[in-house]
Write a structure and sequence with these properties.
Blueprint (H helix, E strand, L loop, with lengths): L2 H26 L6 E7 L5 E7 L1 E3 L2 E6 L5 H8 L2 E6 L2 E9 L3 H10 L4 H7 L5 E7 L11 E2 L3 H25 L6 H6 L2 H17 L7 E5 L7 E5 H8 L5
Helix pairs in contact: 5-7
């Protein structure tokens, strides 16, 4: 077999593995505490739902186009009025494509894609969509606890750092496609125990935060905010390994 034929066969095997991986992921649409369900309605009233990984930056929710199958992305470009569900809350939102380079770079920095994942998916171009909530929606009338004091902000930042560390490790593991999200979570039990310890200490110090959503600001200008759902965290820490 000539070198060209060998390369051709290897290329076919590689492309086939991409198709199998993407098809399996698209069919199963796995959900976890880091995902959201995006509900879309087209011009003929047909309803579509897609499970996507949630990315939060400065209190804003984003989703990313990480795969070659991207019909949901083209759909929200045509019909941007959507419904979003996560953490047992649903609200209406407007899907806004991110066109600002600085904003896109910040999102990509928050949730980077590992090289193994990009190889596994065939290096698809990545785009982002911001989900701007319609604040008049009844589901959004339960407001978070807004932190003002520097000591409280320092406490929640400590917890947020521990949670983000675990989330990044589990996400990078799951994106390789070799393990499920739950299996990946079980690979990092030491880190989860550390984060749970910080969570317990935080609740003991601030018992009124239990089960609440906590909001704090990036700086005094209050241009950007952060949000941490304590009820969602508690559910994650009580999950058992399969």
């Amino acid at each position: 077999m000539t070198a060209i034929k060998i390369i051709f066969v290897l290329l076919l095997i590689y492309l086939g593995s991409i198709v199998i991986f993407e098809s399996r992921l698209g069919y199963s649409q796995p959900q976890n505490d880091n995902t959201l369900v995006l509900t879309m309605v087209d011009g003929e009233g047909e309803v579509y739902q897609r499970v996507l990984r949630r990315i939060e930056v400065d209190g804003r929710a984003y989703v990313a186009v990480n795969h070659w199958p991207r019909s949901w992305y083209y759909r929200v470009l045509d019909f941007p009025e959507v419904s979003v569900t996560y953490d047992d809350v649903s609200f209406d939102a407007t899907a806004v494509p991110v066109t600002d380079d600085d904003e896109a770079a910040e999102i990509d920095k928050t949730r980077p894609l590992g090289l193994a994942f990009r190889i596994r998916t065939g290096f698809p171009p990545r785009y982002f969509v911001r989900l701007d909530p319609k604040l008049q929606d009844s589901a959004m009338t339960s407001w978070p606890i807004e932190l003002e004091s520097a000591d409280e902000v320092a406490d929640i930042k400590l917890l947020d750092d521990a949670v983000v560390n675990v989330s990044n490790l589990v996400t990078e593991c799951a994106e390789t496609g070799t393990l499920t999200q739950d299996q990946c979570r079980c690979q990092y039990q030491d880190e989860i125990v550390q984060a749970e310890s910080v969570f317990t200490q935080t609740i003991e110090k601030h018992p009124d935060w239990s089960g609440q959503s906590i909001l704090w600001w990036k700086d005094e200008s209050k241009a950007y905010s952060y949000n941490l759902n304590m009820q969602g965290l508690e559910r994650q820490f009580t999950q058992d390994c399969p």
